Amino acid sequence: MKIALCLQYPVDLRGGVSVLVETLLRELATRGHEIVLVSPDTGESLRGLEVGKQISQHIHFTPEQTSAADSKNLAEQIAAAKVDVAHFHSGGVFVWGGRFSLHSPVIYLHRLGVPCVSTVHLVISLFEGYCGPQKPAWFKALLLPPAWLGKMRQLRHVQREITVSQHDFQKMRRWYFPLRRKFVQIYHSRLGGKPGQSQNPKRGKIILNAGHIAWRKGQVVLAEAFAQIAPRHPDWILQLAGHDADGVSVQKIRKLIEKQGFEKRILLLGERADAQDLMSRAAIYVQPSFWEALGLALQEAMFAGCACVGSRAGGIPELIEENKTGLLFEPGNVAQLAAALESLIADESRRENLGRAAAASIQERGMTAEQMVENHLRLYESIRR
């Protein structure tokens, strides 16, 4: 097949959506499918990436600047590439012109006879994504009906919209109930090999989080929880791997480090390319998000055999079964998270048991790159022109 993968972010952004699309692209190309990439990347940036060698054509496009004319022009370019399927990926519900009736390229592709699927990688709230988050409630309520109708029109012109967790799947089916049959759920992953392959019987006394450091990811909550228990466990450290995504959270963590004198106890590692190695050495992994579609890094930490703690946010409880494959706490509850960490610090055997069970559970539920690609290919085959 010839498949257009349409991404709202540059591939080299290294965020969850970009990483997953890169994985899908690589795996599809390896299996002999021809890939057209639609993204904000430049030709120069793609030449510096291994995945750049696996695309047959690149169409430059920035979805944040979508107008009706832009969308129509993009649709014509994709159709001219003679693709069998176009797959649009977005980090929110209203991307790719979803909030405006005629601003979505899928409408024009449908008219041109190109079947489309879309994936929404993060579902937060019915009132998020179609206007600025700082807008007052009355303004959001006023704009919701036209935004909802715009999204409904977009949905009518896609064959299927994919969600990455059951949590998001159920939300979208409720919100857009007249077209609830359009939605399907596919777990995403970039995992390969056997579960627990990177298990290390001599893990360090390390608590780890990996991912963009931002308010919604909850690293400030994790740092505060660690600060509560650190004096009682002087040989444990907290590692935070990821770049500063909001300009605020890292500053708050640095102030806490300075106030507590934790320069050697809470380590801001910055953006890292060795997250898997960090997971293989950490005894405990924490996903303290305030919202999360599923939790790609948490999925990978579980597969690596870490004892994991996650918030009851979004799809995280789909990954962690309380006291069987990890521990859960209420989002933002510093005391609960501190108690969960202390309970794992105190019991090495429990950490090992939870890590083994977590690794096995990821494999059992088919949360691997291979299964993700198989599920997508079945969907593509069912709608290809």
Concise description?
By secondary structure, the chain is of the alpha/beta class. The protein is built from 14 helices and 13 strands. Helix 1 packs across helix 14.
Number of strands: 13
Helix content: 40-55%
**CATH architecture label name of the largest domain:** 3-Layer(aba) Sandwich
The CATH class name of the largest domain reads: Alpha Beta
The arrangement of helices and strands along the chain is EHEHEHEHEHEHEEHEHEHEHEHEHHH
Rounded Rg:
21 Å
Description of the structure:
- The chain has helices at residues 16-30, 43-47, 68-80, 105-111, 137-156, 166-175, 219-229, 249-260, 275-281, 296-303, 316-319, 334-345, 348-364, 369-383, and strands spanning 2-7, 34-39, 57-60, 85-90, 116-120, 160-163, 183-185, 204-210, 237-241, 266-270, 282-287, 307-311, 327-329.
- It is α/β, with parallel strands linked by helices and 385 residues long.
- The chain folds into 2 domains: 2-191 and 368-383, Rossmann fold, CATH 3.40.50.2000; 204-364, Glycogen Phosphorylase B (Rossmann fold, 3-Layer(aba) Sandwich), CATH 3.40.50.2000.
- The strands form 2 sheets. It has a 7-stranded parallel β-sheet, with helices on both faces. A 6-stranded parallel β-sheet has the order 10-9-8-11-12-13, with helices on both faces.
- β9 (237-241), α8 (249-260) and β10 form a beta-alpha-beta unit.
- The longest helix has 20 residues, at 137-156.
- It is globular, with a radius of gyration of 21 Å.
- It starts with a strand and ends with a helix.
